[in-house]
């Protein structure tokens, strides 16, 4: 049985479906490349879904390993920059396999962080759903048609300054900075249209606004040359150069 339907049918989430703060993971569930209810996702399903949109096997393996690590709230994986896992030890399916539920991607003291480009800081509101005002601000942050490395990095720096001013409980250090730059780097690698064009705004509207893969807008996943770790690392460093706030 294939890991996901081949017709890429899109079905928005219902109120009973589990979803995360990550629009890409949510889009994969909405396209049935992950279980549509967002629950009981196995490691092979997650690797397959990430590979289906062009992510290299090394990056996919790293992300899946981290996601399937058992979550901890101890002092090492605390609120000041945890990259702790997302699962509880009891998150198993009927066959006894470890599984991931999308609503645990946004749990505190894990990979979720303040200074999101489209989500509220935890101290200021719910960090899971899209914040319409931040979303519109993000889309309007560049007069150009595409979002390249400089635009993404500069906007991250703008968001940091805003959170620093409005959130007295801000938790955002170097670890969170690189996690945040990594999130945008993956978007740039997977959905960018080339070195000089960046990510088209219409792709971001589909991903963030509708949590839908931008297939209707003309995007096609990278099949022959996927986004491997050396490329992703270079893009992370490039975004960080423009976003560095410390």
From TrEMBL:
The UniProt entry, under SUPFAM superfamilies, shows: Cloroperoxidase
- Positions of the UniProt region annotated as Disordered: 1-23
Q: Which domain of life is it from?
A: Eukaryota
Entries under InterPro entries matching the protein: Chloroperoxidase, Chloroperoxidase-like_sf
Q: Which Pfam families match?
A: Peroxidase_2
Domain Heme haloperoxidase family profile span(s) in chain numbering: 6-234
Q: Keywords assigned by UniProt?
A: Heme, Iron, Metal-binding, Oxidoreductase, Peroxidase
Cofactor(s) of this protein: heme b
Would the keyword Iron turn up in this protein's UniProt record? Answer: yes
- GO molecular function annotation: metal ion binding; peroxidase activity
State the family named in the UniProt similarity comment for this chain: Belongs to the chloroperoxidase family.
Which PANTHER family does UniProt cross-reference here? Answer: PEROXIDASE STCC, STERIGMATOCYSTIN BIOSYNTHESIS PEROXIDASE STCC-RELATED
What name does UniProt use for this protein? Heme haloperoxidase family profile domain-containing protein
Please give the organism.
Aspergillus aculeatus (strain ATCC 16872 / CBS 172.66 / WB 5094)
Q: Which taxonomic lineage does the organism of this UniProt entry have?
A: Eukaryota, Fungi, Dikarya, Ascomycota, Pezizomycotina
């Amino acid at each position: 049985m294939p890991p996901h339907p081949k017709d890429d049918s899109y079905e928005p989430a219902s109120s009973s479906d589990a979803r995360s703060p990550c629009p890409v993971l949510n889009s994969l569930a909405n396209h049935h490349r992950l279980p549509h209810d967002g629950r009981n996702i196995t490691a092979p399903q997650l690797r397959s879904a990430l590979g289906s949109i062009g992510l290299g096997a090394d990056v996919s393996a790293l992300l899946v390993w981290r996601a399937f690590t058992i979550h901890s709230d101890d002092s090492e994986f605390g609120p000041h920059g945890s990259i702790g896992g997302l699962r509880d030890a009891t998150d198993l399916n009927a066959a006894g396999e470890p599984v991931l539920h999308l609503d645990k991607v946004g749990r505190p003291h894990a990979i979720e962080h303040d200074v999101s480009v489209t989500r509220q800081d935890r101290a200021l509101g719910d960090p899971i759903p899209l914040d319409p005002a931040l979303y519109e601000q993000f889309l309007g942050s560049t007069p150009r048609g595409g979002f390249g490395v400089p635009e993404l990095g500069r906007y991250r720096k703008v968001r940091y300054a805003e959170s620093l001013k409005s959130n007295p409980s801000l938790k955002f250090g170097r670890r969170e900075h690189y996690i945040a730059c990594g999130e945008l780097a993956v978007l740039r690698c997977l959905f960018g249209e080339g070195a000089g064009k960046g990510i088209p705004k219409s792709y971001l509207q589909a991903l963030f606004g509708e949590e839908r893969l931008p297939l209707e807008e003309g995007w096609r996943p990278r099949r022959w040359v996927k986004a491997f770790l050396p490329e992703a690392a270079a893009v992370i460093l490039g975004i960080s150069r423009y976003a560095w706030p410390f």
